[in-house]
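Per your request, structure below.
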């Protein structure tokens, strides 16, 4: 945006629509920095706002699930599932057109969209869960909006990577992450026919990332935490979102057909493993950079 210079340290400066806000926020931050108590509160608030911004696509999807469950006409000519598909398609297109997602990020999100849809087709075929409402835009028993729910995870990781300027210590090599992700993905299919290797995959992923620390910049300095802890926290929020999805009867597990109940906590493990796949795909675009102390 002409005449406005976004601060160089802002990872969000690559988004022209945010340039004016970034300029305002930079001036506000300069005032807060001189007040120790206000500075701590401001960094906490800034962390929350960045997280909310990173969740933009996912937040819109959750809003659509709840709003259509409560207000969408049951007798509408366009089925709710098809409305969700067209709405999510429009949102994804809008993010790309407004440059809130880059072309490279969109490619990764598309790949994860396809990866998720393929697994959905298989899982619904074997009865792991169902989509109870009719739809026109579907493959087998899977409405096409479902791929966008997987894309939410990829979108969050891509956006958070830029917003928090991720750096790493002791990050595993790409080949190790790719190999682990392939094994995880394969097990989601093969465990229906042979022994479930999930426990071994937890140990493999845990050993691979045990020493890895992620450094994230909320304001002026990088904070850090174990990457495994960060992934577990993200998996927990995905599990919360899944409970919203089943409560709104967007999809249902066999145990929920006679009445809603919370999704099993055991599903946290599944989401953690799927998150490893998401993270691996994102690292193919955003190459992990080492953290250097200054």
């Amino acid at each position: 945006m002409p005449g406005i210079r976004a601060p160089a340290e802002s990872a969000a400066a690559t988004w022209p629509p945010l340039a004016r806000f970034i300029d305002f926020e930079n001036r506000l931050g300069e005032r807060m920095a001189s007040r120790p108590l206000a500075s701590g509160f401001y960094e906490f608030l800034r962390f929350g706002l960045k997280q909310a911004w990173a969740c933009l696509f996912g937040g819109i999807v959750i809003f659509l699930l709840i709003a259509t469950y409560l207000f969408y006409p049951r007798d509408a000519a366009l089925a709710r599932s098809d409305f969700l598909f067209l709405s999510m398609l429009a949102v994804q297109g809008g993010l790309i057109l407004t440059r809130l997602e880059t072309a490279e990020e969109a490619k990764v999100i598309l790949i994860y969209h396809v990866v998720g849809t393929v697994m959905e087709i298989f899982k619904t075929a074997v009865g792991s869960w169902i989509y109870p409402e009719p739809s026109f835009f579907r493959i087998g028993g899977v409405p096409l909006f479902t791929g966008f729910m997987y894309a939410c995870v990829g979108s969050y990781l891509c956006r958070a990577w830029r917003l928090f300027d991720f750096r790493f210590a002791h990050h595993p090599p790409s080949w190790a992450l790719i190999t682990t992700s392939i094994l995880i993905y394969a097990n989601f299919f093969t465990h229906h026919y042979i022994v479930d290797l999930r426990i071994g995959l937890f140990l493999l992923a845990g050993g691979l990332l045990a020493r890895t620390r992620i450094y994230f910049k909320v304001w002026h300095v990088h904070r850090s935490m174990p990457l495994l802890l960060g992934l577990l926290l993200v998996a927990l929020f995905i599990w919360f979102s899944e409970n919203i999805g089943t409560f709104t009867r967007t999809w249902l597990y066999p145990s929920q057909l006679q009445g809603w109940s919370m999704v099993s906590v055991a599903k946290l493990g599944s989401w953690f493993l799927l998150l490893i796949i998401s993270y691996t795909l994102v690292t193919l675009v955003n190459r992990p950079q080492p953290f250097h102390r200054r």
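Strands lie at 138-139, 142-143, 167-169, 213-217, 222-226.

Regards,
D.
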